[in-house]
Amino acid sequence: MNWKNQLTRTPYLVLFIVLITIGVGTASALITITFEGLTVFKENAQFDKDVNIDGVIAGNTINDLKQDILDIQKSIFFMDIVVANTGDNDISVMLGNSDGTFARDDVNISGGPRGISIGNMNSDGFQDVVLLDPVNNLLYVLFGRSDGVIGLDEVFDVGNDAHSTAIGDLNNDGNQDVVVTNGEDSNISVLLGNGDGFLNAQPVVDVGMDPRGIAIGDLNNDGDQDVVVANEFVEDEDFSKIAVLLGEGDGTFVTTDVIVGAFLFAVAIGDLNNDGDQDVVVTNGGTGNTISVLLGDGDGTFTAQPDVTVGSNPTRLAIGDLDNDGNLDVVVSNQGDDTISVLGGDGDGTFSGSDDLIVGDSPQGVVIGDINNDGDLDIVVANKSNNTIFVFIGNGNLLFNSEIFSAVGVEPVDIAIGNIGGKPLT
């Protein structure tokens, strides 16, 4: 994320950086950040001669500056939620109030929207929304603005029965790209971004039958982004496959298959055993009621772990450190018994302290983020059959203070979290 853009996107925050560079050696600079007339950060810092302002903001030279700016950003900007409502053809933009509640605004979208993701698609520092219209085989890009208002700005063709999206830089040009699973076509669409919100369609990539979930990450530690796809179709031997697409750094891929559970739906990537290699987690629906954990070997291959039992008919999942122990935890939404399973990670690819929380009817999308700005991660889940989202406010110990209910549109299925509005504290 470009912290310079993020910090200067509202008139309430002024960031003054004076960086004096010289031909050789280092230089000293006075950095002052003020917010509503109050000095919140002031530092004399030493910088390498070739460091630019973006590098300083990203923390590439001094970690203390990075942490201070992250702390400021965290205290000023609220997490927002965007929900795709398939039943009434709209999305609910839920602008956060920093306490777990939201101000709601609905935006009409045709075709039973789903497959929602958030990212900065036009390089303006504001978070944008990407989502699918599976009826008309379209992908929409809605550009975010400082007041949280988003509107339909770009439309692109994708395949038949499109399900999920993921955003990442697939060709190393600094611009955000999009991948889409096309269930009926058994492939994914690859759309490379220009950096202005326009996407260029590439040849589709075959991945297996009935692809559903999709995720992006560097699976073989080569610096290029890779893609994992969960295919729901069950083979004769009662198993399904994930497709592992190792990126070449130019938007093309080398594809392999990995056998996992059955009736795969959602997939996520994260380092579950703290070895520096990215791992994969996938939901097994139907009668399996488990998640499969594949520990990455750092070269694009995986070592399967024993499946982990969750609730009935798991559909979506999210990864984050809910108890602040440095180990990634997993949350799974279980459509069959109206619960979410919270799995506390042990840091070695196993889980303990599993707990099922009761949610609304037919839970679908689930995300993790700090909704109330207290430093602890919270959980948000979309309940399809009673048209709500539930917010579980985290204590930082895998326990949750309260449940906050918010009404959204009809049949919410997918949910994404980000900073859409860029609102400062008042």
Key terms:
five-stranded antiparallel beta sheet, 6% helix, disordered N terminus
Query: Kindly state the mean pLDDT as a whole number?
Result: 84
Q: What gap, in angstroms, lies between the N and C termini?
A: 24 Å
Class from helix and strand fractions: mainly beta
Helix content: under 10%
Global Rg = 21 Å
Task: Describe the protein.
This protein has 3 helices and 33 strands. It is mainly beta and 426 residues long. A hairpin with a 7-residue loop joins strand 9 and strand 10. The strands form 8 sheets. Strands 11, 12, 13, 14 and 15 form a 5-stranded antiparallel sheet that branches. Strands 20, 21, 22, 23 and 24 form a 5-stranded antiparallel sheet that branches. It is globular, with a radius of gyration of 21 Å.
What is shown here, in short?
The protein is mainly beta. The chain is built from three helices and 33 strands.
Sequence-ordered SSE layout with sheet pairings:
Elements (H helix, E strand, L loop, with lengths): L2 H5 L5 E5 L8 E10 L2 E11 L4 H5 L5 H14 L3 E6 L4 E7 L5 E7 L5 E6 L8 E6 L4 E6 L7 E7 L4 E7 L8 E6 L4 E7 L5 E3 L3 E2 L4 E7 L8 E6 L9 E7 L5 E7 L4 E7 L8 E6 L5 E7 L5 E3 L3 E2 L4 E7 L8 E6 L4 E7 L5 E8 L4 E7 L8 E6 L4 E7 L5 E8 L4 E7 L8
Antiparallel strand pairs: 1-2, 2-3, 4-5, 4-33, 5-6, 7-8, 8-9, 9-10, 11-12, 12-13, 13-14, 13-15, 16-17, 17-18, 18-19, 20-21, 21-22, 22-23, 22-24, 25-26, 26-27, 27-28, 29-30, 30-31, 31-32
